[in-house]
Amino acid sequence: MSDDVKNRTLEAPRPALSTATNLQHPKASLETSKSYVKPLIAELIGTFAFVFIGAGSIIANVLTHGALGLLGIALAHGLALSIMVTVFAATSGGHINPAVTIGFLVTRRIAPLLGLLYIVVQLVGATLAGLLLRAVFPQAVWQAAQLGTPMLAPGVSFGTGVLVEAALTFFLLLAVFGTAVDPRAPKIGGFGIGLTVAFDILMGGALTGAAMNPAIAFGPALAGGFWQNDLVYWIGPIIGAVIAALIYQYVILGSRWGTQEKA
What we know:
Blueprint: H1 3-10, H2 20-24, H3 26-63, H4 69-92, H5 98-106, H6 112-136, H7 139-144, H8 158-181, H9 191-208, H10 214-224, H11 232-252
Helix pairs in contact: 1-4, 3-4, 3-6, 3-10, 4-9, 5-6, 5-11, 6-10, 8-9, 8-11
């Protein structure tokens, strides 16, 4: 990872907006506020692009009567995420997923305030993508595709859905830590992460939609009004992300803490 990525997501900014020191020193608080602007914009744009292409591919598959298929949808998600993570890694770390941000929070690789802001802008970016998809596709088509909102297949229970999403997100977070966090990682940009999303979709897409990302469920659901089993796509990914992050941080890397916690 570049030095700037480490500053943003691994060692990242010193004083947080909420600290007493910053409340007593408005100049420090203002400087910190400014330092947050670029990574937050990066997360918003990156998540917007990922959801627009990913959910858009699901709607396009309906429009073309299945021409894309599961493989095409998996490639659309995987390639979009690969590029967005690579583009914004040096600015924000390229989380583009609240589950990834939560994984960084539990391993103390991002400040609580900045982590919360990341999640907010990720959800905003996903919602904007959903609204744009509503505007560009015919209403009958996006409604038939539920605006690309992931859904449980017939016969898949709530509990099974959570289990599948947790397992798939576990693999995703291993890829994030193994290719973007670990200092020994190969320098392959976001492509290890994107490929993990692609093969997860090939396995789990037919069961749960293989979201692995609360934002890609939340944005289209809010824009289109499709809220069936929405909690599956929060509970499962968060569980999987937390388990994978803790295992990689404290077992594979073998450190008691991540880098110094952001305030």
